[in-house]
Design goal:
Strands 1, 2, 3, 4, 5, 6, 7, 8 and 9 form a 9-stranded mixed sheet that branches. Helix content is about 25%, strand content about 35%. The radius of gyration is 19 Å and the shape is globular. It has a single domain (about 1-200), classed as Electron Transport, Fmn-binding Protein, Chain A (Pnp Oxidase, Chain A). By secondary structure, the chain is of the alpha+beta class.
């Protein structure tokens, strides 16, 4: 298992997620249950260094906004099934109504979800700031297939790629302490058993 830190970690994670258009964003409901939905990541300039911040458009009237305001702890997961690469990001998410940032990130494609355009008062931004990540990095579909065939023929365990932990070392990040304390409090209250993880996924929210 590989462990990465700082800029090396951020570069590795960005190389795995930059071309994946849709991720799954999980936030906590009032009952302490994880609620996940697909989100389309807004494009950022690829010539900039990745500093752990990702942006998403959504509607101010969607349920996730209440969840985020009550508890900013969040999880983002990415899956590249063609390349056999997978990433999960732990962090915090906040709501932004920064019109300059909306102008910067807006594209005509977004009109499919917001037909009134970028001046729609219901249009807001979600700013996800990652703290750390787990990744599963494959050398590619062919190499992965060869690894599986070799395992079947030899009886050995397949080793299709690299797995690891990435500490992104984001300055002044305070999200992890909040996440841990919330989860511990909920477990003490009996809402969630220590060894149980509950995931609730509803129908796709057209606004993310």
């Amino acid at each position: 298992m590989t462990t990465l830190h700082g800029r090396e970690a951020r570069e590795r994670i960005w190389s795995l997620i930059k071309d994946i258009k849709v991720s799954m964003l999980a936030t906590y409901t009032a009952a302490g249950v994880l609620h996940a939905r697909p989100m389309q990541q807004q494009k950022i300039e690829t010539n900039r260094a990745f500093e752990g911040v990702l942006w998403f458009f959504t509607g101010a009237d969607t349920g996730k906004v209440d969840e985020i305001e009550a508890n900013p702890a969040a999880l983002l997961t990415y899956a590249d099934t063609d390349g056999h690469n997978y990433v999960s990001l732990n962090g915090t998410i906040t709501i932004s109504r920064d019109r300059a940032k909306i102008d910067e990130l807006w594209s005509d494609v977004d009109k499919a979800w917001f037909p009134k355009g970028k001046d729609d008062p219901n249009l807001i931004l979600l700013r996800f700031e990652a703290a750390d990540a787990e990744f599963w990095d494959s050398p590619g579909a062919i190499a992965t297939g060869v690894s599986y065939i070799k395992a079947l023929l030899t009886g050995e365990q397949a080793t299709p790629g690299d797995t690891g932990h990435a500490d992104l070392d984001i300055p002044n990040f305070e999200g992890r302490e909040t996440v841990n304390s919330d989860r511990i409090d909920q477990r003490k209250d009996g809402k969630i058993e220590p060894e149980t993880v509950l995931v609730s996924t509803g129908p796709r929210d057209p606004l993310g």
